[in-house]
Each structure stands twice: as structure tokens, then as C-alpha cells.
Design brief:
Chain lengths: 367, 337
């Protein structure tokens, strides 16, 4: 019995060893396919890519960009759209296969991605995290001969243009990418001009409410709520920005009452639906003056989550929300319609556009 | 069923189950590959004349193989360490993280994610802090003259709690969008991102731990009788116990460093094994290895192949493990109570 078990254990060890050995001696062969070209991705890796017809991205921010500039090349999405989000998604794009991905607290399945048969896989890279190259290399190893393209992440609306243009080149959608970039730059420039002229006394104070209780927030400098800084609002949570950290924090309702912001912006529908009926929040100027605004949700949120190209339409909206008198030249109904038909492939009627804006809390006199 | 035939069935189960599962696991996955192609791909390095596609080669050797080996090794290590701990502490409710190794490793990983975010740094930190926490536990128990097993267990509980608080502190200061999910996910345990390099890194501690436990399994039987008994048979119980703890710590720390914290296996697999082969450590230790490896392999196959995203493995170990365990419990625990 004893000897038998010893022999068996030895056999198992040998088996595992053989497995490892064969793995180590295996060198995969790569062959160039037709119409392929070498490109340098945004983290300076040289990648050979075929003529791109099918794209998948490993996380929502880049999936969003592909959906905006070349929806017919998008092969799969990372998560199932909710019914609320599907409201403004054309039927032909409503049923993408869902492949998951690597973001938040979930891991994707490499096999699931390979089974979607993409020509290229897009991997976004978060700013400022140390593991960029190793993550991309690990993906490339697992995806074998399917090229993995590293794109500098699009979490900053001021820099997102660069990644949009890069993606346009890679997937052969340069015209759309330019159009999106131009749209973004147009509003960024107008907003930059006006917000840089604001004196501190003129700035309105804004509280960004996250979570269904509205008691999580981000200081200025964080990627979440960056549009407040961009249009020159004064983020009341600045004081929690200690030692240059830009992470979110849980705070108390007393703290919000103490800050007493002029406006509150949120992306959370639950919070928005109860804030006007909550006696605790009734003490705050923003609530008393009906100055609470909810980011539009469909097909992607305008203001935050994900932080990416979906926030481009959030720039004029946030400007209108905080300083309606300074931006009378924006006709939000037209801007919304233009953006949706060009980049979300959905032609809104005037009523639909107005509905989106009314639901966001914007007063009709300020459209 | 007589003893003889039971033994034969046990041996068949314990020997062939892991082997069959090991090879069968190559056939499972989200990407549809025919069994013939899988077999051809596996044989290809030996017979280069076989025609196989490079996509399938990648899937078999880069995606499935590392995970299969990892599940095998982690399952085997945690179960062996659990069985050894249960016998030397003479307590059936003990799991491998009794002396603080899991929370220590978890703290190391959380710290590494906070500071750098690079994969192999996280792995090394987890491994080292796992060992550090057990060392602290052991040194504290030594510092009290009245030493003995109870003090060791109590200081383990204390150090565990301490590192658990440190993990919470790191979670509290981590960036909720970027670092925090990563830390939480790591602590949940997963084999989803195991790479060949990681497996090579833990090879040596795993082998050392394995050798220690396999060679000392006779001594475990003696230790289980009590220290005086062991001493009268010419054994130095303190020394042997320290060696066994060291072996278990190497195994657990190395496993946790690649997989994150996977609970339940180290506690329950030894019990399941005992129900099959009885309480004799000479057989129990290798049998736990085999059953643990098979079990985690099975669970991980479900985790990676059932739906399009990864199901966290910790969820499955309990959901699938509990019914099996309760079934075995019903069959009776006659040999060992």
C-alpha cells in the first residue's frame, strides 16, 4: 500500500513535470496574413495587425469609443445594457454578444474573447498605475497570435482626443474619429475660454453626490467629477483632498450641510429620485433652489462612470447646468441631437432630446 | 462492503480521479475545440509533424495548462496542509490559516497592490508576509514560558485578527476605483490570471513543503497521540511540530500567493478524505493531496467554463463543496470522531 502510493505520487509529479516541460519547449509560430501592417501602439509596442474588421476591447471605456466611431466593427460588448440604457440604442446594435472583460472587480475569460474571433483586442491602460506593460504583455501571451493593442486610457476628457484619433487609425475609422475629436475640442475650447475668466467670487460651489445615499464624493483632481473642474465650478469637497490623493471618500450629511453647495450633480438615479423628499437634504441651498441635476443615462452616462469618451457630451451639459447664463449660445437640444445621430447612431426627435434634458433636471428656459 | 473491496475502490478513486480530471480539463473551456484537436495539440511538441492551428495551441498551452496546473497544485497544497494541521493540533475544526498565514499574505498582497500594482511584486509580498505572520505567531507562543499548543493557537488567532485589521486599513485608504476593486478581487481568490512564470516562482517552496509533509507523516500519527507519548517514543515533539508548521506554511503561503485566499478547501477536504481512507496520516496526507487537487480542478473548470465571465472560485468551493460534504457526513464518520 505504502509503496503503491509512493509510486503513484511519483507518477503524478512526473506528469506535471512533463506538462511544464512541453510548455516551456513550445514556441508558437506566427505567420503574416494579407493586408497586415506594423503599427506602434500607445505604449510603444510594435504590433503587426491585419486589416481590421472585428474589434473587441477588454474594458468598457474603449468599447464605448469603438461603438461611437465604428459600431459595425464592434464584435462584442463587456456587459449587458440595461433597459434604461437601451432606450437610445438602435435595434441593430442592441444585441451584441457579451464577453465580459477585465475591469472593476471582474476577470474576463480569454477563451470567450478568442471565440468572438476578433482581429485585434484593445486593452486600455489606466493613467498612473504601475502595471501597464506587464498587463498588456500578459494579455498578449494569452491571446497568442491575436494582436493586443495598448491604448492610453481615455479617463480624461481633455486627453481623450488622442486615443480617439489613434483608435480611428487602427480600426480604419479616421473620419468618424476626427469628427468626434473636433466636436470635443469645439466645446472644450469654448468652455475653457469662459471658465478661465471666472473670478473666485463668481464661481458656484458644486457637490458631486455618488452612491444611492449621495454621501460619497470626489475632490477636484479626481477623474470622477472632473467636469466640475473643467467648467469652473468650485468642488466643495476640495478640503478632503489631503496630500494630493484624489480618491473618493464617504462623508456625513452634516458635512454636506456645512458646505451648503449652490448645486448638486449626481449620476445616481436612486439618489436623485429621493433627494427632494428627504428632510435631511432639505437644509441645503441646492435642494431648496431646485438645483440638483442628474446625469442622463442612455446609452452611456454623460457625466461619469465610465470616465471616457461618453463624457464629451457631458461638457456642454455641465456648462449649462452650472452657468446657464454664460452659455446661452449653446442650444442643448441641437447639440444633443447632433451628438446622438453622429456618435450614438440614433436620430432623436426634438421631443426625445427635450425629454433627456428635462429628466436631467435642466430647466426648459435654459435649454 | 468488505474492507478489501473498499480499499481497492479508494485507491482507484484517489489515483485515477486526479489523472483523469487533469486530462479531461483540457477539453473544457469557453472556446469550442474538438477533443481530437486538443489531443493533437498536446502531442504536437512530441510529434512535430501533426498539423495544429496556432489559436488552439495558444488556448491549450497558454490559457488552459497554467490554470489546470495551478488548480491542481493549490488544491493539493491547501488540503495537505489542512490535514497536517488538524492532526498536529488534534482539532478537527482547524484550517491551514490557523496561525495567520492567509491574513498575513492578504495584507502583503494588499500592500503591494497599493504601492505598485505589478503582478509579481504582489505575489512575492503575499508569500513573504504569509511566512512573516506565522513566524510572529510562533515567536509569541515561544516567548510565553507556559507555551504549548493552546498558546500557539491563541496567538495565531490574535495575529490573524491583527493582519485582518491592517487589510481593512489598506482598503480604507485605497483608491475606490482602481486599487480597491483589485484588492477585494485578490482577496476573493481566483485562478483567472495565473501565468506560467508565477507557477515557476512557487515551484521550490511547494516542493520543499511537499517533501516535509510526506516524510513526516509517520510523526504526525505520534504527535496526535499527545506530546508525552511521542516523547517516550524518542521524538522531540516541539521540533517536529515546528518543521510541520514550516512545511504547511510554505505550501499555504505559496498557494495563496498565486490564487488569493481560497477558503473551505483546507478545512473540509481532509475530513472528506478521512471519511474515505480513515485517520491514519500515512495514507491521509497523500490522499488529501489527491482529493484536494481533484476537487479544486473540478471547481475551477466550472468557474472558467460555465458562463462568459469568471465565477469567483470562493463562491463555488462552498456551493459545490457543502452538499458533497453533507452527503459524506450522512454516510457516517465512524472511524474518526
Amino acid at each position: 500500500m505504502e509503496r503503491k502510493i509512493k509510486v503513484i505520487v511519483l507518477m503524478l509529479v512526473v506528469l506535471v513535470a512533463i506538462g511544464v516541460a512541453t510548455h516551456l519547449f513550445l514556441s508558437p509560430s506566427t505567420t503574416g496574413s494579407e493586408g497586415s501592417q506594423n503599427i506602434t501602439d500607445m505604449i510603444n509596442r510594435t504590433v503587426e495587425i491585419p486589416a481590421v474588421k472585428n474589434v473587441v476591447a477588454t474594458a468598457p471605456p474603449m468599447t464605448t469609443v469603438v461603438y461611437m466611431i465604428a459600431p459595425d466593427k464592434l464584435k462584442a460588448v463587456n456587459f449587458q445594457w440595461t433597459d434604461e440604457e437601451l432606450k437610445y440604442v438602435p435595434n441593430e446594435y442592441a444585441n451584441f454578444p457579451v464577453v465580459g472583460g477585465w475591469y472593476g472587480t471582474q476577470d474576463g475569460s480569454y477563451e470567450e474573447f478568442i471565440a468572438a474571433e476578433p482581429d485585434v483586442v484593445i486593452e486600455s491602460i489606466d493613467e498612473g498605475s504601475g502595471g501597464d506593460l506587464s498587463t498588456v504583455n500578459q494579455r498578449q501571451e494569452k491571446f497568442g497570435k491575436i494582436p493586443v493593442i495598448g491604448v492610453r486610457d481615455t479617463t480624461n476628457v481633455k486627453k481623450v482626443g488622442e486615443s480617439i484619433l489613434f483608435m480611428g487609425k487602427v480600426i480604419g475609422a479616421e473620419d468618424k474619429a476626427n469628427q468626434l475629436n473636433d466636436f470635443n475640442n469645439k466645446y472644450l475650447n469654448i468652455v475653457h475660454d469662459k471658465s478661465s475668466k471666472l473670478s473666485d467670487g463668481e464661481k458656484k460651489s458644486v457637490y458631486y453626490a455618488c452612491g444611492s445615499d449621495g454621501l460619497q464624493t470626489y475632490p477636484s483632481g479626481a477623474s470622477h467629477g472632473q467636469l466640475i473642474d473643467l467648467v469652473g465650478g468650485k468642488n466643495v469637497a476640495d478640503s478632503i483632498n489631503q496630500g494630493n490623493t484624489t480618491t473618493g471618500a464617504q462623508i456625513s450629511i452634516e458635512q454636506v450641510i456645512k458646505w451648503n453647495p449652490d448645486l448638486i450633480i449626481t449620476s445616481d438615479m436612486d439618489f436623485y429620485n429621493k433627494v427632494y423628499n428627504d428632510s435631511n437634504w432639505a437644509h441645503i441651498k441646492a435642494v431648496q433652489n431646485k438645483e440638483v441635476y442628474l446625469s442622463p443615462q442612455s446609452p452611456f452616462k454623460w457625466f461619469d462612470r465610465p470616465v471616457g469618451a461618453n463624457m464629451i457630451i457631458g461638457v456642454p451639459w455641465t456648462a449649462k447646468v452650472i452657468y446657464p447664463d454664460d452659455y446661452k449660445e449653446f442650444n442643448m437640444v441641437d447639440v444633443t441631437k447632433e451628438f446622438y445621430s453622429n456618435f450614438y447612431h440614433f436620430d432623436l426627435s426634438d421631443d426625445q432630446a427635450r425629454d433627456i434634458l428635462i429628466s436631467s433636471g435642466l430647466d426648459e428656459s435654459n435649454f | 462492503m468488505d474492507k478489501e473491496s473498499r480499499e481497492i475502490i479508494s485507491i482507484l478513486l484517489l489515483v485515477f480521479l486526479p489523472v483523469i480530471l487533469f486530462f479531461a480539463s483540457f477539453l473544457l473551456g469557453r472556446y469550442p475545440i474538438s477533443p481530437v484537436d486538443v489531443i493533437k495539440t498536446i502531442l504536437c511538441p512530441l510529434f512535430p509533424q501533426l498539423e495544429v492551428s496556432s489559436t488552439i495551441t495558444t488556448i491549450v498551452f497558454e490559457i488552459r495548462l497554467p490554470r489546470i496546473i495551478a488548480a491542481f497544485v493549490v488544491g493539493a497544497s491547501l488540503s495537505m496542509a489542512g490535514a497536517a494541521f488538524q492532526s498536529i493540533f488534534k482539532n478537527p475544526l482547524v484550517s491551514p490559516d490557523l496561525l495567520g498565514v492567509s491574513n498575513g499574505a492578504g495584507f502583503g498582497a494588499a500592500l503591494a497592490i497599493l504601492l505598485s500594482g505589478v503582478g509579481f511584486v504582489t505575489q512575492i509580498f503575499a508569500f513573504i508576509f504569509g511566512i512573516i505572520s506565522v513566524s510572529i505567531t510562533y515567536l509569541i507562543s515561544k516567548a510565553y514560558k507556559a507555551g504549548g499548543i493552546l498558546v500557539l493557537v491563541l496567538s495565531g488567532v490574535a495575529i490573524s485578527a491583527f493582519f485582518s485589521a491592517l487589510i481593512s486599513a489598506i482598503k480604507f485608504i485605497a483608491d475606490p476605483d482602481d486599487k480597491l476593486p483589485e484588492i477585494v478581487y485578490w482577496l476573493m481568490g481566483s485562478l483567472a490570471s495565473v501565468t506560467t512564470d508565477q507557477l515557476i516562482m512557487i515551484l521550490i517552496p511547494i516542493i520543499i513543503g511537499f517533501i516535509i509533509l510526506i516524510t513526516l507523516r509517520w510523526h504526525m500519527n505520534l504527535l496526535a497521540m499527545g506530546d508525552e507519548e511521542a516523547q517516550s517514543l524518542g521524538l522531540n515533539p516541539t521540533k517536529v511540530r515546528l518543521l510541520i508548521i514550516a512545511g504547511c506554511t510554505l505550501l499555504t503561503s505559496a498557494s495563496v500567493s498565486v490564487s488569493g485566499i481560497i477558503g473551505w478547501i483546507g478545512l473540509v477536504i481532509p475530513h472528506m478524505t478521512r471519511m474515505i481512507v480513515g485517520p491514519d496520516n500515512k495514507i491521509l496526507i497523500p490522499a488529501s493531496l489527491s482529493l484536494g487537487a481533484s476537487f479544486l480542478l473540478l471547481i475551477d473548470n466550472i468557474s472558467r467554463a460555465l458562463i462568459s465571465i469568471e465565477i469567483p472560485i470562493g463562491i463555488l468551493t462552498a456551493i459545490i463543496g457543502v452538499p458533497i460534504f453533507l452527503y459524506l457526513l450522512k454516510k457516517g464518520y465512524s472511524e474518526w470522531a
